[in-house]
Design a protein that fits this description.
By secondary structure, the protein is an alpha/beta fold. The chain folds into 2 domains: 6-202, 2-enoyl-CoA Hydratase, Chain A, domain 1 (Alpha-Beta Complex); 207-277, Lyase 2-enoyl-coa Hydratase, Chain  A, domain 2 (Orthogonal Bundle). Helices cover 40% and strands 14% of the residues. It has helices at residues 30-45, 87-96, 113-119, 147-155, 157-166, 172-177, 190-202, 207-220, 226-241, 244-254; strands at residues 6-11, 14-19, 51-56, 102-106, 109-111, 123-127, 131-133, 169-171, 183-185. The strands form 2 sheets. A 6-stranded mixed beta sheet has the order 1-2-3-4-6-9, sandwiched between helices. A 3-stranded mixed beta sheet has the order 5-7-8. Helix 2 (87-96) runs parallel beside helix 3 and helix 8 (207-220) runs antiparallel to helix 9. The longest helix has 16 residues, at 30-45.
Length: 282
């Protein structure tokens, strides 16, 4: 499939999704939203994709919503009855459901949706050129892309409120100090560092185990009691424990050789997955 607003490149099991509107600083529009969601659908269905990196083309990661519509940019008419859905939230919820590890390699300014989309990614790396801004209060709107759920869980409530109250743009060193990013690199070292990290998730690991761990960790952020985690852990260990991947994991360890896991995310997830859609599960 060809895309107009993103680049989709797979190499050595790692998919790099590059936001690709450099003439607009990769500003986010409906076409980009739809294309990124489709790219994630493709990645989940492709067993050759083991990890995903997001980055931006040119000097920006994403300058936020495309404001080319002027003062009516955010005044859109609903296509159906009821409150229209926020496009940024549609994207972050799709990232939330992704079966592959997602790494942000923020190469430059990331404002509005450019910052909030990264909240739903698993690990965030930044270039020294990166800047972040949760600028909604300066645009007369509210935080979007489900960031009122994601951001406090990433950096804590006080920092989340400070950044959204002020709407100020801050540099990568502050993002690092506050725990929003894992590490900061010179520009030329950012993507190699992201790829090296992605390879750690791809090499000698069970893709099914990684997919399950991602969903277990994220979904348990909203759990009311650790017993909910215990219920999922118990079912997960039971079903994966009898899998071909578990046999290979033990055999490779005992035989002191690299593991080669046969399990495929597209066909070998445990039978109770996705458990959060099971309304009868207690």
């Amino acid at each position: 499939m060809s895309f107009e607003t993103i680049l989709y490149e797979v190499e050595d099991g790692i998919l790099t999704i590059t936001l690709n509107r450099p003439d607009r600083l990769n500003a986010f529009n409906n076409e980009m939203r739809d294309e990124v969601i489709e790219a994630l659908n493709m990645a989940d269905a492709d067993d050759d994709v083991k990890a995903i990196i997001f980055t931006g083309s040119g000097r920006a990661f994403c300058a936020g919503a495309d404001l080319g519509g002027g003062g009516d940019t955010f005044n859109y008419k609903p296509k159906t009855q009821g409150t229209p859905r926020d496009g940024g939230g549609m994207l972050t919820l799709r990232i939330f459901e992704c079966l592959k590890p997602v790494i942000s390699a923020c190469n430059g300014p990331a404002v509005g949706i450019g910052a909030t989309m990264q909240c739903a990614m698993d690990i965030r790396l930044a270039s020294e050129n990166a800047k972040y801004g949760f600028v909604f209060s300066k645009r007369g709107i509210v935080p979007e892309a489900a960031s009122s759920w994601f951001l406090p869980r990433v950096v804590g409530i006080s920092t989340a409120l400070e950044w959204t109250f002020s709407g100020r743009v801050f540099k990568a060193d502050e993002a690092l100090e506050r725990g929003f990013v894992r590490s900061v690199y010179p520009a030329e070292e950012l993507l190699p560092a992201a790829r090296a990290l992605a390879r750690e998730f791809c090499n000698e690991t069970s893709a099914v185990s990684v997919a399950m761990a991602r969903q277990m960790m994220w979904k348990m952020l909203g759990a009311d009691h650790p017993v909910e985690a215990h219920q999922i852990d118990s079912r997960g260990v039971y079903f994966t424990g009898k899998s071909a991947d578990a046999k290979e994991g033990v055999k490779s360890f005992l035989e002191k050789r690299p593991a080669s896991y046969p399990g495929r995310v597209s066909s070998d997830m445990p039978e109770f997955f996705p458990w959060w859609e099971d309304r009868e599960f207690k």
